[in-house]
Amino acid sequence: MSAVAVAAAEVAAAEPAALAVEGLTTQIRIAGRWFDAVRDVGFEVHRRETLALVGESGCGKSLTALSIMGLLPSGVGRIAAGRITVDAVDMTAADEAGRQAMRGDRIGMIFQEPMTSLNPVLPVGFQIAEALIEHKGLSRREAKKRALALMELVRIPAAGQRLDAYPHQFSGGMRQRVMIAIALACSPKVLIADEPTTALDVTIQAQVLALLADLQAREGLAVLLITHNLGVVASVADRVMVMYGGDVVESAPVKAFFGRPTHPYSEALLAAMPRVDRPSDALAPIPGQVPVLPDMPAGCRYQSRCPLRIERCAERPPLNPLPGAPEHRVRCWVRAP
Amino acid sequence: MLRFVLKRLLLALPTLWAVLTLVFVLVRIVPGDPTIIVLGDQASPAAREALRQRLGLDKPILVQYGEFMVQIAKGDLGRSIVTNRPISADVAAVLPYTIELTLAALLIGSLIGVPLGVVAAQRRDGFVDWFARVVSLAGLSFPAFVSGILLLILFAVELRWFPVISTVNTSDPIERLRALTLPAVNLGLIMVAYVTRVTRSGMLKALSEDYVRTARAKGLPARLVVWRHALRNVLIPVVTVIGLYLGVLIGNAVLTEIVFNRPGLGKLIVTALNQRDYALLQGLIVVTALAIVLANILTDLTYGLVDPRVKAA
Amino acid sequence: MSAAAGATAAAAPAPSAAVAAPSAWKRATRSGGLAVGVVLVAAMVLVALLAPWIAPYDPDEQDVIMKLEGPAAGHWFGTDAFGRDVLSRVIWGARVSLFVGSVATLAGILVGTVVGIVSGYYGGLVDKLITALTDILLSFPQLIMGLILVAVLGPTMFNLILAIAITAVPAFVRVARGSTLAMKERDFVDACRALGFSDLRIMFLHVLPNIMDEVVVMGSLWLAAAIRTESTLAFIGLGVPPPTATWGGIIREGFDNLLDAPWLSVFPSLAILLVMIALNLVGDGLRDATDPRAPQ
After folding, report:
1. Do the chains contact at C5 and A23, CB–CB below 8 Å?
2. Which residue in chain B is spatially nearest to A66 when comparing CA positions?
C-alpha cells in the first residue's frame, strides 16, 4: 500500500481530488433545536488513495459520510455550511436530482450492517443491476449480465447460480461482498466504506479488506474508510483523520500518525488499542464519556476528558501543522500552539 | 410450491375439524326442545316425532356427530326444515353475490388503502396523513349497517345517484355495476381503514430501514425507493391484515347485504333466523367457517409470493 | 460562519430536561385525541345515567296523531311510526348499549385475563388446549360469533351480554397469556418463588399489575366492538326485544321508513358513530401513552 501512497502523492499535485470537502458543518436536531454534530471539517481524497476517518461512535464520522452522500435524514440532519465536491461536481450546489444522479454512479457507499443493508425481498442480482439500469440506461438483461460479472469480481463463489438468490441465502461476509458489488456497479470514482468489516468475523474481515484493497488498485478508487479500528487503519490507510465531538482533532499520513500521535485524544486512542507487542494489562481506557451534543463544552470539545487541559482550551484551537511536518496537523493548544 | 400448498392444506384439517365440532355442539345446546322451537308449542306429538326423525335427533349423539361429519365431507349440508330444499343448492345460488361483493370490497380496500397508507407515511403529519387517519378511524368505528344506511340516505335517497334496492339479477353489466357500487364502497371502507393503517405504520418502519438507505445510496429515484424497495417489504403485513380481516369482511358483508337488500349469505342468515330454520343456520355457519379457513390458507399461500423467505422455511 | 454557529450552539445552556423522553402523559395528550375521547365518553355515560331526568318524553309513550313527524321544535329528532319521541328513545337507548357493552366487556376481560394468566403461568397440556381453542375462536369474526350465540340462546338481555362476553374472552386470554409468558422469563418471578410466595399471590399480585396496561388499552377498544356488536344484533332483530329502546332497534324500525322518514335512522346512527369514535380515540390514545414505540 505504501508504494501506492507514494504514487498517489505524486499524482496529487497534478490531478484534482476525487473527493474534496471544505468547511463542512452538519447539524442534527435534538428536541427541536439544531446542534453542530460535524463542524468545519475539510479534507481531500485522491484517486488510489485511502483516507481513514477514525473516532468513537457519535464523533460525527458517519454523519460526515451521509453529508457527502446527501443522505442525511430530512428534518433531523442538515448541512449548515461547507462545500463538497465529488469528481469535480459540486454536490452542495446541486439539487436533489443532481445528487441522486451522482449517488451510485460516481460515488458509492458500503454500510456497516450487511445483514440489514440488503433488501430481503429482492434477488441480489437485481439489487446489483438496479444502479446500472438507473444510471447507465442498461436493459434489464444487459444489467443482469454485468451484475454477474460484478459478483465474480467480488469473488462470490458459484455466482451464476446465485444471481437470483435472496439475501437470506447468503452469509454475512457474502452479503458484504454483494454490498461492495452494488457500490462499485457503475465504476464510481469515490467509495465511502462506513465500518465495512465491523460486523464480520475476524477472518472474514481480512478477506473483505483484501478484496477492497485489490479493487481499489484495479479501479483506481478514492476510498474514504470510516472505522474505529486502528488495526484496520494501520493496514490499509494512506492518511488518517481523527474526529472527536464533530471536530477533526488530528490529520496525518498514516506513518507519521502511528509514529507520533500528537493530540491527547489520539494518544489515548492508541493506548486503548490492544497490540501484540504490549501486555494486555497495559491497555488504558479513556476516562469519562463523550458528552452528548447539547452538553458539549465551548472551545475544545475534548477538554472535559483531557489530562493536559489548560485555561485556553475554553477557546476553540485551530488545526495547526506541526513544526517541520506540514502534512501533520493537530487541533490542540498544548501540543500545537 | 406444490408441496407447500399440500402441507398447508393438511395443516388446515385439524382446524377445520375443530370448527365443525364447535358448530355441531353449538347448534345442539339450544335450550328447550328444538321441535317446539321450530313447530311451535301447538304442534302434535306425532308431528314433533316426525321432525325429530327427519333431523336425526332420535339417534344417539355420537351417531349424529358421525353423520354430520360424513355429510359435510361429501359436500352435503342437509335440507332446510322449512322448505326441505337442499341447503347446498340454496347456498350455491346466492354465494356468487356474496363473493362478488367481498372481492369488490377487497379490491377497493387494496387499491385505495395501500397508496393512501404509502403517501401518508411519506408525508407524515401532512394533509394526506391527516386524511388517512380520519378515514381509518371512520372505517374502524362505523358498524357496517350504520355506514350503509348513511350512504343509502345520502347517495340513493337524497342524491338519487344509485338505486335504493340493488337489482342484481340483471344481464346489463352497467346496471349490475351500479347496484354493486354502494354496497362495495360500504364494505370497502372497512378494508380501506385496515389496509391504510397497516400500510402506513409498515411504511414508517420500512422507510427507516437500512435497505432503504442502500437503495437511496444507489441513486434510485424516490419513486423506486418507496414503491419498490419499501413497499415490497410492507406487503407482508398488508397481506396478513387482509387475510386476518377477511373474516371480519364476511361478517360485515352479511350486514351490507341486509341494508342494501342484496341476495347473498347475509339475507339467507336472516331468513334462517326469522324462520327458526336451524338446519339452514347450521349449514350457513359451516359455509362461513369453511370460507374463513380457506381465507387463512390463501393468506399463507400469498406469503410465498410476497416473501421469498417463506419458501425456504 | 460555521464556527459562529458552533459557538452559539455550544454556548447555549444545555436543555437536558427537554432531551429526555417525553412522559407517557405528554405523549398521550400531544395528539389531543385521548382528551376529546374521554370527554365524549364521560358525556355519553352522563346522558345514559340521567336519562329519566333529561329525556323530554317517556320513550315508550305513543302518540297516534304525531306519527313520523320530522325534526321540529317539540321533537328535536322527530317521531317514529308510533309517534314516540326519537330524542327520548335515543337517550334511553344509550343506557342499553352502554350497559350491555360494558358489562359484557368487563365479564370478558375478567374471565379472559384469569384464564390467560393461569394458562400461561402453569403451561402444560391444558395451556396447549386453551391456546388451540383460542386460535380457532379468534379466527371467527366477533360479529358472526355473537350472531350464532344469540341465535342459538335466544335474544334476551342476559343472553346478549353472555354472547358478547364470550366473543371477547379469547382475545383477552391471548393477551394475558402472552404477557404472563413474557413476565415468567423475568427474574422477579423467580425471586418471588425463592421468597416462597404462593403461585396465586405471584399471579395476581405480581403478574397481573404488570399486564394491566395492555388489558386496559384493549378493553377500551373491545368496549367499542361490544357496543358495535350489540347495536348490530339489535339491527338484525337479535337485540333486547322491543319495546325497549335500543339504538340498533330504532334504526331497524326506521329502516322500513327510510324513504320518507330518514331521521329515524340518522339520529341513532350518529349516536353510535359518536360512541365508536370516542372509544377508538380513547383506545388509540391510551395505546400511544403506554407504548412509546407505537406509531402515532
Report:
1. no
2. B217
- Closest Cα partner for A61 from A216, A189, A300, A228? A228
Say if the Cβ atoms of B26 and C149 lie within 8 Å: yes
Residues paired with residue A89 on neighbouring β-strands, in sequence order: A86
> What is the phi/psi pair of residue A82, to 5°?
115, 170
Q: Is C235 helix (H, G, I), strand (E, B) or coil?
A: helix
Kindly tell me the burial class for residue B121, based on how many C-beta atoms sit within 10 Å of its own C-beta (0-12, 13-18, 19 or more): buried
Query: Which residue in chain C is spatially nearest to B250 when comparing CA positions?
Result: C141
Q: What DSSP string runs through A84-146?
A: EEETTEETTTS-HHHHHHHBTTTEEEE-S-HHHHS-TTS-HHHHHHHHHHHHH---HHHHHHH
| B116, amino acid identity | L
Question: If contacts are CB pairs under 8 Å, which of residues 61-90 in chain A contact chain B?
Answer: 69, 71
Query: Residue C10 above 50 pLDDT?
Result: no
C278: nearest CA in chain B?
A: B141
> What is the reported pTM?
0.79
Q: Cell digits for C265?
A: 335512522
ipTM for the complex?
Answer: 0.85
Order of strands, sheet of A77-86, starting from the edge strand that comes earlier in the sequence? A33-45, A19-30, A77-86, A89-90
Best of B125, B214, B223 to substitute, by most chain A Cβ atoms within 10 angstroms, is B214
Residue pairs spanning A and C at CB distance below 8 A:
50
* Residues with Cβ within 8 Å of residue B134, at least 6 apart in sequence: none
Residue A140 near residue A129 (C-beta atoms within 8 A): yes
Full DSSP string of C65-117: GGTTPPS-SS-TT-B-TT--BHHHHHHHHHHHHHHHHHHHHHHHHHHHHHHHH
Q: A201-210, C125-134, C283-292 — which is least confidently predicted?
A: C283-292
Sign of torsion, CA A311 A316 A320 A322?
A: positive
Contact B108, B192 (CB under 8 A): yes
Q: Crossing angle, helix C263-290 and helix C24-31, to 10 degrees?
A: 150
Query: What does residue C222 show for φ and ψ, rounded to 5 degrees?
Result: -75, -25
Q: Is B75 helix (H, G, I), strand (E, B) or coil?
A: coil
Q: A-chain residues within 8 Å CB-CB of C16?
A: 294-295
Tell me how close the Cα of A36 comes to any Cα of chain C, in angstroms. Answer: 6
Q: Which of A270, A266, A280, A272 is nearest to A336 (CA)?
A: A266
| Each residue's pLDDT tens digit, A236-276 | 899 999 999 889 999 999 999 998 899 999 988 888 877 66
Q: At how many degrees (to 10) do helices C86-122 and C208-236 cross?
A: 140
For residue A82, the chain C residues in CB contact (below 8 A) are: 2
